[in-house]
Amino acid sequence: MSPAITVRQQLAQRPGSQYGTESRSLSFGLGSMFSFALYSTSYEADAATIRIPGGIKLRLSSASVDRKEMSDFLRVTTGGGKTAMNGGGVALKFSSEENGDMIPICTFDGERGGDLHQTGLGIEVEGPRIVRLAAVIERTCKVGSTLNVNVFGSVFEGDL
């Protein structure tokens, strides 16, 4: 049996990026509950591409970030070796073939409440479709600091 959906994220190598050329590719079968981590970057072009074949539905239900990663991501070193909290965060963004604009779904930001998870995303997409999902940093990317956004959902049979 072939995989129902495939998720692929390819990061382009850019000067000053904390990543080299990185690639993640995952497949999930019909009936799967799944999770995958999106690399966060400053570029929407680094979005993960999700291919959904005909007769299959993708449901994205929640997203979260790791508490320690978020703390390290927001911490900056100031003069004299002291640390302070920096503003900004990561926005989870979504686009489809019908609308190529990346639309913010939720934001993980230490200054605006510090939530580490978002439930009830309620995104359902039936194939055949290709959608994109990105974790976009809302400030200048700090070298050496990463923050993955973990996305959870399921794959099931669509309306035929």
What does this structure look like?
This protein has about 160 residues and is mostly beta strands. Helices cover about 5% and strands about 50% of the residues. It is built from 1 helix and 13 strands; from the N terminus they run ββββββαβββββββ. The protein has one helix spanning about 65-75, and strands at about 5-10, 25-30, 35-40, 40, 50, 55-65, 75, 85, 90-95, 105-110, 115-125, 130-135, 150-155. Strands 1, 2, 4, 5, 9, 10 and 12 form a 7-stranded mixed sheet that branches. It has a 4-stranded antiparallel sheet with strand order 3-13-6-11, with no helix packed on it. Strand 7 and strand 8 (about 85) form a beta hairpin. The model has no long low-confidence stretch (mean pLDDT about 80).
Summarize the structure.
The protein has one helix at residues 67-74; strands spanning 5-10, 23-28, 33-38, 40-41, 48-52, 56-64, 75-77, 83-85, 89-96, 103-109, 117-126, 129-137, 149-157.
CATH fold title: Jelly Rolls
Query: Tell me, what's the shape?
Result: globular
CATH superfamily, by name, is Nucleoplasmin core domain
CATH class: Mainly Beta
End-to-end separation in angstroms reads: 19 Å
Total of helices: 1
Query: Which ranges are low-confidence, i.e. pLDDT below 50, for 5 or more consecutive residues?
Result: none
What portion of residues belong to β-strands?
Answer: over 45%
**The CATH architecture:** Sandwich
Quick check: average pLDDT?
79
The counted number of beta strands is 13
Give the biggest sheet: 7 strands, mixed
Sheet/helix structural class = mainly beta
Output the helix-strand order.
Answer: EEEEEEHEEEEEEE
Task: Count structural domains.
Answer: 1
Gyration radius, rounded: 17 Å
Q: What is the share of helical residues?
A: under 10%
